Structure prediction request, 100 residues.
Amino acid sequence: MEFPDDPSATPMEVRGVTFDADTLASGTTTSSFYLSARLDTPRVGQPPALVVRAREPQYGEPGTVTRLTAGGTDTLRIVGTASRGTKVRLEMTIVCRPRP
Prediction:
C-alpha cells in the first residue's frame, strides 16, 4: 500500500505512507512489516520519514500491525518503534477500489 497515489495532489499533513507485510489477513496481527510515513506540518515542517522496519530485527525497530475489515473498509492499527527510538502509533483506514 502506498499513499498518496498522486504525489502532486494538494499538499496535506501526511505526505506519504508506504506499508508492506508479507501476510496480513483480516482479523490478524503480525510483527513482520515495513512502514514509512512522511509528514508535513506547520509546526515542524517536513521532518525525516518515520520508518519502522519490524521485519528486520537487526535495526531494533519492533512493532505490531493489526488488520480489521468492516463493510469493505480495511483499518490498519500500527504500533512500533521507529528509527532513533521514536515511538510511533498510527491508525490508517484504507479503502481499496479500482482507479477511475
Observations:
- The chain has a mean pLDDT of 78.
- Residues 2-94 form one domain.
